Amino acid sequence: MNHVLDQLQRPLRDLRISVTDRCNFRCSYCMPAEVFGPDFAFLPNDKILSFEEIERLVKIFVQLGVKKIRITGGEPLLRIDLPKLVGMINEVEGVEDIAMTTNGTLLKKYAQQLKDAGLVRVSVSLDSLDEERFLDMNGRRGKVKTVLEGIEKAAEVGLQVKINMVVKKGKNEQDIVQMAEFFKEKQHILRYIEYMDVGNSNGWKLDDVVEKKDIVEQVNAFSPLEKVAPNYKGEVASRYEYKDKKTEIGVISSVTDSFCSSCSRARISAEGKLYTCLFATKGTDLRELLRSDKDDKAISTSISSVWENRKDRYSDERNEQTMEERKKSKIEMSHIGG
Ligand code: SF4
Fold it and tell me: Ligand 1 centre and the CA of 157: distance in Å?
C-alpha cells in the first residue's frame, strides 16, 4: 500500500465511478433537456469502461489508499447487469464501503440484487413530494410514487438509505419542511444540497441558491435540531439530529460553507477519465493506459502523480474567481456523477 497525499495533504480515500453518461431524467440543475436533447451524442459502448477495466482500476486505487467506492452516472441503474459490477468491486480486498447514487426509478427492481452483491448504502435523489414540482425539476420524467417505492424497497432489503434534495429558489424551497416531516416520520436521513454551478449547462445564479442557514432555520422551526459531529473527516454533509427523535438531516453546502480542505474524492468518468474535482475543467485519460500494454504499476504511477499534484479547492475559491476562470468550461456533473 502506498497512500498518496495531494498538495494540501489530503489523502485519496473516496473513488466515485460513473458507469454511464446516460440518464432517464433531465434534472434542470444537472442535465437540462434543452442541452441533453434527443440528438445529444452520448458515449458509444466501446468508449465506456468495461466491468473488468473498472475492477482493475479499483484494485489499483485501493493500493493508493481508496477505501470507499461510490457508483454514479448519469443514472447508474441504466447500466446493464450493474449488480455484477458491485459484486466484482465487493471482491476487491481493501474496499470497505460501496455506495450508489440513483434517481430511484429502477431501485425497487434491483435493490435485493444490489444488496446481495455487496452494496451497503444508497443515496436517492428526490427534490419534491409534490408531483408537479418533482416533474418541473427533473424534466417531466418518472413519478414520485416510483421513487418512494424504491426507497422503501432499499430500506426493506437492508440498504442504508439517504435522500438527496437539491433546493433551488423559485422551484422547490417551499418543500423543505414537507420533506423533513415526511422523512423524519420514515426515519430516513434527508440531505439538502445547495444548488451548485456544476458544469456549464444549468444557468446557475447565486440568487437561486437557498443557503444552508435558511434551510436549517426552517427545519429547526418545524422540529428543533441539534448539530452533531461528522461521522468521519471529509464527510460532505453537515449533520443535525432532531431533539425528539433519533433521525437526522444533513446539508451539503458547497456554496455557502464549502469543505474543500478535507476533500479526498477522485472521480472517474464512464469513458475512463480521472477528475480530481467536481468542478474540474480537464481529466486524465486512464482508458488509453488500460487498453495499452502498460502494467498496473505504470498506471498506478500515473494516478499517483495526478493526485500528488492536485490543488483543487474550487468551492473554497468560488468567490475569488476571476471572470476568466469562471468562463472555463467545466466537466458536466452528469458525466462524472455528483
Ligand atoms: S469543489 Fe472540488 S475540491 Fe472542493 S469539495 Fe468539491 S470536489 Fe472537492
Answer: 32
- Work out the number of other CB atoms within 10 angstroms of the CB of residue 322: 7
Class of domain 14-336: alpha beta
222, three cell numbers: 418545524
Q: How far is the CA of 263 from the centre of ligand 1 (A)?
A: 6
Of 10, 198, 256, 263, best ligand 1 pocket probe by most atoms within 8 Å of the beta carbon = 263
- For ligand 1, the distance from its centroid to the CA atom of residue 260, given in whole angstroms, is 5
312 CA from centroid of ligand 1 (Å)? 7
Give the pLDDT band (50/70/90) at residue 3: confident
Residue with CA nearest ligand 1 atom 2:
277
Distance 222 CA to ligand 1 centre (A): 31
Secondary structure element (H or E) that encloses residue 72, with its range? strand 68-72
CB 144 within 8 A of CB 132: no
List ligand 1's pocket residues with C-beta within 6 A. 259-260, 263, 265, 277-279, 312-315
What confidence score (pLDDT) does residue 320 get? 77
pLDDT digits (tens, 9 = 90+) for 52-91: 999 999 999 999 999 999 999 999 999 999 999 999 999 9
Q: State which ligand 1 atom lies nearest to the alpha carbon of 315.
A: 1
Q: What is the pLDDT of residue 189?
A: 98
> Is 90 exceeded by the pLDDT of residue 1?
no
Report which ligand 1 atom has the smallest distance to the Cα of 278. 7
What dihedral angle (degrees, nearest 10) is formed by the CA atoms of 183, 184, 186, 192?
A: 30
* C-alpha span between 134 and 172 (Å, rounded): 8
Question: Which tens digit of pLDDT belongs to each residue from 228-264?
Answer: 999 888 899 999 999 999 999 999 999 999 999 999 9
Q: Which three cell numbers stand for residue 281?
A: 475543467
Buried (b) or exposed (e) across 5-28, using 16+ Cβ within 10 A? Answer: ebeeebbbbbbbbbbbbbbbbbbb
Q: What is the pTM of this model?
A: 0.95
In terms of phi and psi (left: phi > 0; alpha: psi -120 to 50; beta: otherwise), the region of 154 is alpha
